[in-house]
Design goal:
This protein has 120 residues and is mainly α. It has one domain. It has a two-stranded antiparallel ribbon. α2 packs across α3 and α2 runs antiparallel to α4.
Length: 120
């Protein structure tokens, strides 16, 4: 009898992958805060998670440019840059906290599987 880990772990493994993708995009926004004309990007977490959970062979962490959304700034800059540092830092912090929560859930699932295998 074998264990199907994708079934046993649920969406948490996919959520970690999508959170890692989003962290990469948000870090790019923060890094380009002073770049004239840079357009801040983000991804729709729920849509991306649903797409990843339906795609069995999705192992890459590369986010295609077509999947990214543009962030609408609250206050436009004169140089055309749409990155607002406070907004990006808040989004990055929230994403990091959500990543940690998904990691905790995944860890609890793995501990439960280990106990089941050990017969406890």
């Amino acid at each position: 009898m074998s264990i199907d880990f994708s079934q046993a772990l649920g969406l948490h493994a996919d959520a970690l992958k999508v959170r890692a993708e989003r962290a990469k995009v948000l870090a790019s926004n923060i890094a380009n805060e002073s770049t004239p004309g840079y357009q801040a990007r983000d991804l729709d977490f729920a849509a991306r998670l649903q797409a990843r959970s339906q795609d069995e062979d999705s192992l890459s962490l590369d986010t295609e440019a077509s999947e990214l959304l543009y962030r609408v700034p609250n206050q436009a800059a004169q140089d055309g840059n749409t990155v607002e540092l406070g907004v990006e830092q808040a989004a990055f912090s929230q994403n990091a906290a959500d990543f940690q929560a998904s990691l905790t859930f995944l860890n609890m699932k793995l501990k439960g599987l280990a106990k089941a295998i050990a017969g406890q």
